Amino acid sequence: MTDVLERPAHAEGHGHEEHGPTGILKWLTTTDHKVIGLSYTVTAVVMMVIGGAFAEIIRAQLSSPNGTLVSLAQYNELFTMHGSVMIYLFAGPFAFGALANIIVPIQIGAPDMAFPRLNALSYWLYLTGSITMLSGFFVAGGAANFGWVAYVPLSSSVATPGSGADLWIGGLLLTGFSAIFTGVNLCATIFYLRAPGMTMFRMPIFTWNLLVTAILILLAFPVLTAGLIMLYADRHFGTHIFSVAGGGVPVLWQNIFWFWGHPEVYILALPFFGMVTEIIAVFSKKPVFGYKGMIFATLTIGALSLGVWAHHMFTTGTVLLPFFSIMSLLIAVPTGIKMFNWVGTMWRGQIWFSTAMLMAIGFLVTFLVGGLTGIYLASPPLDFFTHDTYFVVAHFHSVVMALVLGAMGGLYYWGPKITGYMLNERIGKAQFWFLFVGTQVFTLPMYLLGLRGMPRRMAVYPKHPSWQYLNDWATVGAVLIGISTILFVVNVVYSWKRYPAGDNPWDGHTLEWFTTSPPPHHNFYRLPPIRSERPTWDYNHPEHKALEHGHREPAAEGSAK
Amino acid sequence: MRTEARVLLSLGVFFAIMDAVYWIWSKEDAGGVMIIAGTLLCFLPGLYYFWWSRRMRPRPEDDPHAEPAQGAGVVGTFPGTSIWPFTLGMASFVMVLALVFGVWLLVPGLGLTFWAVVGATGESRRGGQH
Ligand code: HEM
Ligand SMILES: [Cu+2]
Predict the structure, then answer these.
(1) Residues of A whose CB is below 8 A from B14
(2) Is residue A50 in contact with ligand 1, taking CB distance under 6 Å?
């Protein structure tokens, strides 16, 4: 059953009938990036729900000082698996495996990913890795319980002998290889499968961000994989790479982990930055403001992210504080450029407050809070004061909840393209308000808790009037977020095949809106001439001359004034 | 091809400078070595693309005035569906479980891997002939 990857000639090109097996066998044998991407999307959303359920249990336990919902040991498993599931099994795979897998090839006019079978392998490694990690709950001794960062000596075979820890390592090995293969695939696709006229500086920002993400994956993930193998060797083969007893260096694990861990933050964030950029431009009916500046900022963030890892280790006393502090603060500059460009894109635009747009704006606000508090944490004197308190938990939850908002925006924006059907906007907006308000109600009290000295990773805490009401508010926020997730599921069920989308419901800019919804096998029946970074818009609005970016007349912005 | 090369090479140059500053200033080896690895990982494909970009004619995707028809035609041939990625995935799963539940699992794991690799290779051959 050979498949010839073909590109259509022009407007009158021919379609490509899908063939091959159906049903479960189709799912097992597919190499179509859209089917694989959809499997990724569904799996990642399921992981988000699982990780979210752990979070709700955590917050329920913390709603009173001496909570008895779970035991102390179970609490350790819960926060470890909450963090691990959310970072390794939801945010990462959703960022570079789900929507990216579906949208990037279409945005550049490619018939599929460069290595379709490798793409399928990535998904199977992700799925089996997730199962491996979660199965820790079913073995004697329970799941991993050393935090999502697995610091030694806590993760050594003496402190954590159980096989839950080994399943955690094994699961990460599988998902790590999955990520590396996806990185290779994205790079090759973007370098080699662009349509004629789609020069690098006409690629949509989303695709650009995934290119930088893919490069970061290739730089960072091999380091994590190597570290995990060393950790496993220390646990079972009697090596002493990380144990003082045998002459090893425990803090080396932290260096290796964060050398992956900080780039990982941008591997998670950049794809969502890209989604939000597309959404804001389309729903403001304007081209992206400062297109090249945006790309330059992304590349700068990618470059700097390799030199900041030890800002997670300021308090170890073993790192060069000024270097890591300066490098971390420098990242605020390109991030600030992006913020201004997003606002600039909306400025005097004709803004359409769809659910996707609301989610994108919610992302901006929430990410801004997370980014600004990150500046505090990048200054060692302030970090010494707040390290390992709820201030840090609040900081990174502002960031990751912004990513959840971005993910939801992406699903509302591209969902119609992928399935052919829209989601209900009313339920969507209700979901947005629960998610957005819930996020702030959940994170803001945790900042104060941190400043008032409450340490993280505590199942019980002293009865302290100035701590109690803040914990109550955080729990209320978590409940609101939980309701928003239920609303999302309700929306998917309610809207199932209810509102046909048409090919271009949002008057989109980029190539995915040129093809049908859902796109045919190999994506395109025809391609427009590509003369700017908005080929679909140029085609649908011939009244606006497509000018090279940077020289766009105000008139080309349509009725923007 | 030129822009692709430039992106990778400029990242490589940045990492090289950063590593020099870091290593000389901190005298800490783990980070120094890891950044060097990153530097090389940028230079390797970067130089390759650079070398090619000087030898090949610009591709339609590098030409701002290219028409869709210039890229029409066969991009590549692949098996339309394949069971081997799934097989290889399951093989890797079994091998990772060997880390936890016992070395004997390596026997079916490696067997499955071998089967999948042979199967996938044969499939590529056949796929290429059409
Ligand atoms: C419903 C939304 C969420 C709630 C209510 C929630 C709640 C919490 C709480 C209370 C903690 C601190 C536990 C402790 O230190 O004792 C925590 C830790 C953590 N959360 Fe969340 N979270 C949510 C969403 C997320 C998301 C979306 C991500 C990532 C994408 C995430 C990643 C993490 C990580 C990495 C940790 C650190 C775990 C550790 O200390 O090892 N969380 N979460
Ligand atoms: Cu960091």
Answers:
(1) 303
(2) no
Contact A246, A71 (CB under 8 A): no
- Averaged pLDDT in 10-residue chunks for chain A of 561 residues: 55 48 86 95 97 97 93 96 97 95 95 93 98 95 94 92 94 97 96 93 97 97 97 94 91 96 96 97 95 96 95 94 96 95 94 96 97 94 95 97 97 95 96 98 97 95 92 97 97 94 93 94 89 92 62 42 31
For residues A378 and A328, is the Cβ–Cβ distance under 8 A?
yes
**Closest chain B residue to A3, measured at CA:** B80
Are the CB atoms for A283 and A351 separated by under 8 Å? yes
Residue A381, preceding peptide bond in cis (omega within 30° of 0): no
Name the residue among A112, A120, A530 with its Cβ closest to that of B85.
A120
Q: Looking at this predicted complex, what is its ipTM?
A: 0.95
- The whole-angstrom distance between B108's CA and the closest CA on chain A is 16
What does the block give as tokens for A531?
Answer: 């003369």
The structure's pTM equals 0.93
Predicted local distance difference test score (pLDDT) of residue A10: 40
Task: Using a CB–CB cutoff of 8 Å, tell me whether B112 touches chain A.
Answer: no
Which residues are close to ligand 2, an ion, with C-beta < 5 A?
A 262
How many Å lie between the centroid of ligand 2 and the Cα of residue A188?
A: 28
Please name which of A47, A120, A14 lies closest in space to residue A525, comparing C-alpha atoms.
Answer: A14
d(CA A246, CA B91): 35
Q: How far is the CA of B61 from the centre of ligand 1 (A)?
A: 43
CA angle in degrees (0–180, nearest 5) for A460-A464-A469: 90
Which of B18, B29, B33, B93 to mutate: most A Cβ within 10 Å?
B93
Tell me if the domain spanning A22-540 has CATH number 3.40.462.10. no
Cite the DSSP H helix spans in A160-309.
Answer: 163-192, 205-236, 250-283, 291-304
Residue A232's SS3 state is: helix
Residue A38 near ligand 1, beta carbon < 6 Å: no
